[in-house]
Specification:
The chain is 38% helix and 14% strand. The chain is α/β, with parallel strands linked by helices and 176 residues long.
Length: 176
């Protein structure tokens, strides 16, 4: 999948289904849910959109994140995290997965502790300005779109995905 020339944003957390349709009404914003039956793929969504901002809910790290959370919450089958990391790395190498420019984490206070550590610890540590906590409110998101911070890009997944098994939630912090 070719990287978008637009700013790509993955929105996650409580209230995504409510905010995406409202964001799609804004000028220069194309927002859609890319989950569920009949939803376009991320590649199709990117190829068909020419807006300044592409906002969706299809996290390329969704399976890795779930496996990491389950691993540290003692709910995972042995080896699941390693399989998900390996699968994601291969998809990144093939170009089937691309990290978004930003993750907007809606209502992070409502997340379970290990999920907070994933979003505001693991990912935020990699590129602090690329993971932004925000209220689950379309107005707050609209204001944020006009003032997204700049910062270092995401490091290559090969450099950090393999080490997730030893990235311990309480040790990685909460992005402070």
């Amino acid at each position: 999948m070719r990287p978008a020339s637009s700013t790509t944003i993955v929105v996650t957390g409580a209230g995504v289904a409510e905010v995406l349709p409202r964001l799609d009404r804004l000028p220069n914003v194309r927002a859609a849910s890319l989950k569920g039956d009949g939803a376009p793929s991320v590649a199709d969504f990117v190829a068909a959109s020419h807006s300044s901002y592409l906002v969706h809910d299809a996290d390329p790290l969704e399976h890795v994140a779930s496996a990491w959370v389950e691993f540290f919450d003692d709910r995972a089958t042995l080896g699941t995290l390693e399989v998900e990391v390996s699968t994601a790395l291969e998809a990144f190498r093939r170009g089937d997965l691309v990290l978004p420019d930003y993750y907007l984490v809606l209502d992070p206070e409502s997340l379970a502790p290990t999920w907070k550590h994933w979003w505001l610890g693991v990912l935020s540590k990699l590129a602090r300005s690329r993971v932004i906590p925000v209220a689950a409110d379309a107005s707050a998101l609209r204001r944020l779109l006009g003032r997204l911070p700049t910062g270092r890009p995401w490091p290559e997944p090969e450099g950090w995905l393999p080490g997730l098994r030893t990235t311990i939630p309480d040790a990685v912090g909460l992005g402070g």
